[in-house]
TrEMBL record:
Top-rank taxon: Bacteria
Keywords: Membrane, Transmembrane, Transmembrane helix
TM annotation in the entry: 12-32, 52-74, 86-107, 184-200, 207-224, 258-277
Keyword Membrane in annotation: yes
Protein name (record): Phosphatase PAP2 family protein
Keyword Membrane: yes
Domain Inositolphosphotransferase Aur1/Ipt1 intervals: 66-195
Amino acid sequence: MPSLPATVQHRLRHLLLNALTFALCYLTANLLAQQQGIVRHAALPFESSIPFLQWMILPYLSSSVFFCLVFFMVKTQDELRVISQRLLLATVVAAILFVIYPLQFSWPRPVIESPWWAYLYASLTLMDKPYNQLPSLHVSYCILFWSALRPQIQPGPARSLLAGWLILTALSTLFTYQHHVLDLVGGALLAFFCIIMITPRKTEPHVAFYYLVAACALLSTGVLAWHLPLALYLMCSLLLVSLAYFRRDCNFLHKRNGLHAWWIWLMYAPYLLGYWLTWHAVVWRERRKPVVIKLTEQLWVGRRLSNAEASQLPADCSIIDLANELSETRALRAHTYRYFPLMDLQTPPPDTVREILLHMRAEMDGGKTVYLHCAMGYSRCIVLAKLYMSQGTLIRP
């Protein structure tokens, strides 16, 4: 199935996520190395003969332009996902290495006589202190930019120009005295690692990856850099969520009778609180909209309802709860209640889908109205309702 075109909202969302991750991780690693007074470096003996070329400041600065433009130059949602996830992975892995083994550039930056070039060169220090050396994110990003932009340009002068400029951008780190040779090698290896790990043509969101990235960001900033106990707890909790999504473990929250046990709250509080706050935000945002959608006389769908909202349901309504990450409302549990664990943003297992559809068929054949709900009423319940409406007459035990 071909990937859908990427919208402006998709592009801005990925750009913002990458920019925030870069700012948090990169600046934290820089500040930590500066506070520690790091002086060790990875310079090779011959590098002292490398000349400083002030015109190389321009390709060096262009990396930030590519960082923004690449999200708008790819065409499909899958291409956007791939470059976004590759950049995120490169950023958090590099940040961890920067914090574990910080390095400093080995000699002072030169004095530039031209006011124009001096101004441009000084602007580098706004982000690029003489730390965060190995691996060079500049080089990693250039290779990842090329992997995303190459398919967008037909073979010819334009593609050759792009390749040449990105090579100049990578090499400019040497000739503007920002990095050493080993830094460039490390940056290239990191980029190839990201390309191998993040592959195209994935049909659903890689939820496990994003929780892993969040955990790695906490590792580099809160745990390794600032030694915060809370950051360690948050990191471990998000790693557990990432592992659950990677294993597609629908029962990882062990929800029973519509409720989560205390030890589940202890392990997964950040995840559960995040969904709880999101649910409240959705309730407030959609406060003037109908709380349920009546697809047929017997099939209603929507989000988890509050106790007050649940009064709108028929007295003999049968509740089907698909919201793995939210405890069920007391008023909804007072109805005929059945819970099926489904993971958000994931394709539901075929066996579970059939079990849900059979239960819906049985309840409706018994004359009951079914209220099928997930957390926010956007995905899981809609998918199951559509399946039922297309296959309902064929569903039999």
